[in-house]
Amino acid sequence: MTFKAPDSLSEQIAHYLAERIIRGELKPAERIQEQKVTQALNVSRGSVREALLILERRHLVTILPRRGAQVTALNEHNVRSLCTLMSELYILLGNAVASAPRSEAELAPFLVIQQRLHAASARQDIKAFVEESFAVMRAAYPFANNPYLQETVENLQPAMSRTYYLALDQRKANMNDFLVLFAQLLEAVVGGDLPRIREVLTQYCERSCTLVLSSLVAG
C-alpha cells in the first residue's frame, strides 16, 4: 500500500490504523508493532512512530515505556467518561448553532447531512452512518468559532466513533434512533430552544452509553 499527498504520511498511516481500530480489526490491548506496520505499508519507521503519537492523542492507542503501543481498552469507566464529556461538547455545539444569527442557507448543510444519514441507514452502511454522524458536529464548528472546542472534539471523535461502531455492529443500537434524535435536535436548534437541546442530547448520550456497555458485555 502506498500513501501520497495531500495529507501528511503520518496522518495517512494514523487514519489507516484508526479505521482498523474503530472497526474492531485491531482489538483492545492488542499490541501494534512498528516493524510490522512499516513492512506492511512500505513506509518509514519514523512515520509510523509519528502516526502512533497521533493515535495516542486521539485516545485510540496507549504508548507504554519499553512495551510500545497497544490499542486502548474499552471498559465501563472509559466509556462512561467519554460519553459524559462528549454529551457536554455536543450541547455546546448545539447551543452555538441555535444562538447564532443564521439564514436558511447556513442551515442547509445540516439538511444535506440528514439526507445522507437516511441514505446510509437505508443501505445499512455502518461506516458511512458513523462518519455522517460526526459530519453534523463539523458543520457546527463555524457557528461555535472556538478552535479549542473544535480541537477537543476532533481528538475525541475517533474514540467515540469506535464505541458507536461497536454498538451498531452488534445491533445493540439502531440507526433509526439516531435519525429520530437528529430530527428532534434540528427542531430545537431552529427554534432556539436551549433547554430542549440539552434534554435531547443528554438523553441520547445516556442511552448510547448504555447500549455501548451492553455491546461490551455481549462481546
From TrEMBL:
<dbReference type="Pfam" id="PF00392">
    <property type="entry name" value="GntR"/>
</dbReference>
<dbReference type="InterPro" id="IPR036390">
    <property type="entry name" value="WH_DNA-bd_sf"/>
</dbReference>
<keyword id="KW-0238">DNA-binding</keyword>
<dbReference type="InterPro" id="IPR036388">
    <property type="entry name" value="WH-like_DNA-bd_sf"/>
</dbReference>
<dbReference type="InterPro" id="IPR011711">
    <property type="entry name" value="GntR_C"/>
</dbReference>
<dbReference type="Pfam" id="PF07729">
    <property type="entry name" value="FCD"/>
</dbReference>
<keyword id="KW-0804">Transcription</keyword>
<feature type="domain" description="HTH gntR-type">
    <location>
        <begin position="7"/>
        <end position="74"/>
    </location>
</feature>
<dbReference type="GO" id="GO:0003700">
    <property type="term" value="F:DNA-binding transcription factor activity"/>
</dbReference>
<dbReference type="InterPro" id="IPR000524">
    <property type="entry name" value="Tscrpt_reg_HTH_GntR"/>
</dbReference>
<keyword id="KW-0805">Transcription regulation</keyword>
<dbReference type="InterPro" id="IPR008920">
    <property type="entry name" value="TF_FadR/GntR_C"/>
</dbReference>
<protein>
    <submittedName>
        <fullName>GntR family transcriptional regulator</fullName>
    </submittedName>
</protein>
<dbReference type="GO" id="GO:0003677">
    <property type="term" value="F:DNA binding"/>
</dbReference>
